[in-house]
Amino acid sequence: MIGLMKRNREMYSSENVSHDTLKMITDGTVEEHTALLYEPYADSEDNCGSEMLSAEEMKKAAGLAAAEGFSLHIHAIGDKAVTRALDVLCELKGCEGTRTIAHNQLYTDGDTARIINDGGIFFQTTPQWTKSDDYTLRYRQSAQSVRPCPVSARRVY
Ligand SMILES: [Zn+2]
Predict the structure, then answer these.
(1) Does residue 135 lie within any of the structural domains?
(2) What is the DSSP letter of 59?
(3) CA 32 – CA 126 distance, rounded (Å)
(4) What's the 101 CA to ligand 1 centre distance in angstroms?
(5) Could you tell me the distance, in angstroms and rounded to a whole number, from the CA of residue 75 to the centre of ligand 1?
């Protein structure tokens, strides 16, 4: 994988296009009950979501990519997925590229503190998830671990 990424970076990068980021998908979405959660979905008692990549797979891929100067971008929506993404990115503090967690729909208070304390992780989210409109509430309530995104805790770059 890393060889293909390096080759694509060399062959296709230009003034307007850069191939310098590894995106990894940790889980799915709350709406599809595939966001990775610590607790089962309220309406599907044995379902804690789906694991697209194991923690070990992410750590290995991220380490290899970071060592070659690639930025890291991790899709994580459920609280357990966000923890896994943080485990990977916090270990790579000081790497050359940027470190980003995308979405962050649900997460634990402990992980909020880890994001703030690290100080270098981009925390990309969807503003709709900070509100309590009918659409968001309906899907958020299907996840028992309701910890919506606290806007005031996010670091602004
Ligand atoms: Zn995504």
Answers:
(1) yes
(2) H
(3) 17
(4) 9
(5) 4
Q: Which two tokens stand for residue 148?
A: 């919506």
> What CATH number is given to the structural domain containing 89?
3.20.20.140
Question: What is the 10 CA–ligand 1 centroid distance (Å)?
Answer: 25
50, part of any domain: yes
Cα-to-centroid distance, 69 and ligand 1 (Å):
22
| Domain that residue 136 falls in | 19-143
Beta bridge mates, 89: none
Let me know if residue 41 belongs to a domain: yes
Q: What is the pLDDT of residues 65-114, one digit of tens each?
A: 999 999 999 999 988 999 999 999 999 999 999 999 998 888 787 888 88
Asked whether residue 151 is assigned to any structural domain, the reply reads no
Domain tally for the chain?
1
Q: In whole angstroms, how large is the CA radius of gyration of the chain?
A: 16
Check residues 23 and 141 and name the one with the higher pLDDT: 23
> CA-to-CA distance for 152 and 37, rounded, in angstroms?
23
Q: Report residue 115 as tokens.
A: 């994001």
Ligand 1: centre distance to CA 70 (Å): 18
- In the reported structure, the alpha carbon of residue 103 is separated from the centroid of ligand 1 by a whole-number distance in angstroms of 7
Q: How far is the CA of 14 from the centre of ligand 1 (A)?
A: 25
**Distance from the alpha carbon of residue 11 to the mean position of ligand 1, in angstroms:** 26
pTM: 0.83
